[in-house]
Request: fold
Amino acid sequence: MSTPEGLLAAARALAGRRVAHAEIVANKGGVGVAVERALGLKPRFDDIDDPVAGVELKTLPVSAAGAVNEDTYVTMASIESLARETWATSRVRKKLACVLFVPVVHGAPGAGDDVVVGAGFLWRPSAAQEAQLRADWEDLADLVAQGLGFAVRASRGRFLQLRPKARSSWHTREATVAGEAVVVRPQGFYLRRALTQALVRDAVIVA
Reply:
């Protein structure tokens, strides 16, 4: 039976493996897809990546010096779902309850344009971390549910951030707010780099 610790062990066995630049270019989300396949996981959009183990997988692009390169996508911020969700039932909370972070190193010495898989680590939010995630989510989710997500600044939220999630800033879709049809741009929840950078630092210290 799949367990968080078993999945972690499998992820750590991948440490040092290269993902070829050609594969990254050829496949959308090439590094993440390669790690998923190596761990026997399939993409799941509304559920966590390993529902049996209760673990969400997130690849974390970092520099050779260990600096996190970007914010981490969590899930879509849908007007329809957020109008029905509470923090306790939210997809964000479900996906962040237990996360297997797998650093993927860009610019590793001798790797050229290839990406090198680093040592994975498990993260379960502490009580204080979850309290802040909840506060951010409730603030942002309320605005999205009211159809005001477009007005949210990127600086809002300490751990969670709301950002556009589409191939083009011109991409729109129709949604219903208070019984009225409105046109919105898809948005998603992201973990800020400041949080994941601290997690990487703590993981290295613990290891």
